[in-house]
Amino acid sequence: MSAPIELYYWPTPNGWKVSIALEEMGLAYDLKPVNIGAGEQFEPDFLKISPNNRMPAIIDPDGPDGLPIAIFESGAILQYLGRKSGQFYPADPRARAAVEQWLFWQMGGLGPMAGQAHHFRTYAKAIEPDESKLDYGKTRYTNEVNRLYGVLERALSDGRDYIAGEYSIADMAIWPWILPEGQGQDLADFPLLSAWMDRVGARPAVKTGRALGTDMRRPLDEDSADGKKARDLLFGQKARV
Ligand SMILES: N[C@@H](CCC(=O)N[C@@H](CS)C(=O)NCC(=O)O)C(=O)O
Q1: Which end of the chain has fewer CB within 10 Å, C or N?
Q2: Is 106 in the pocket of ligand 1 (CB under 6 A)?
Q3: What is the per-residue pLDDT for 110?
Q4: What architecture is domain 93-202?
C-alpha cells in the first residue's frame, strides 16, 4: 500500500475539487491545512510546493517514478489523480478530450468568473464603502456566471447524466463552483443543472470531500480583526519579488 498523499488544503471550492477526488478515488491522504486567511500560503515551505501562493496542492510521496512529486493547480491535480488511480479520467482519446474540454472550461471560465462574482457581490463592500462603485463589476460577473450556467444547462439537455458523459473529474471540478446564492443566480431557471447538482451532491464521496475542514473556515466578509486581516491578505496582493 502506498504512502498517503499530502493534501495542502483550505475549505474553498478549489480545495473541495481535490478532497472530493481523493474521496472518490479511495486514495489515502493526510490533511495539511493552509490557512489562507492567516497568510500561511506565503510560507517559504509552502511556496516551494505551490509557487503561485494558492492552495490546493499535493505531494504524492509515491510519484510516477517512485519518487515524491509536488503538484499545484487543481486541474493538474485532478488529472494527475485520475491517471494515478485509473478512475474518472478515461483513457480513450475521445472520452478523455470530452473530459478535458469541460475541465479547462471550469479552470479558465467558471472558476475565475464565479470568483469575481463572489468578490463583487459579497466581499468588496467590506473594502469599498461606496457600493455604487461596485455595480459595474457586480453586473458584469453576475451576467457572465449566468451565461456559464446556461452553457451547462444546454450541455445537459441531450439527456446525459454527467457533464462529459460518464461521471468524471470534470464533474468534480465544476460541482463545487455552482454556488447560486453567492453568485446571484436562481437554480429554478436551470432545472437540468439543478438536477445534476443533486445527482452529484448525493454521492457519499462528494459529501465527505465537501465537508472536509468546514469548521476551519471563517467568513471573509466578517466584521472582525481576523476578517479584515484575511481581506487585506487575499485582496491586496501585488508581486512579491
Ligand atoms: N487556479 C488555482 C486557483 C486556486 C485558488 O485561487 N486558491 C485560493 C483559494 S480558492 C487561494 O489559495 N488563495 C490564496 C491567496 O489568494 O493568497 C487552482 O485551481 O488551483
Answers
A1: C
A2: no
A3: 98
A4: Up-down Bundle (1.20)
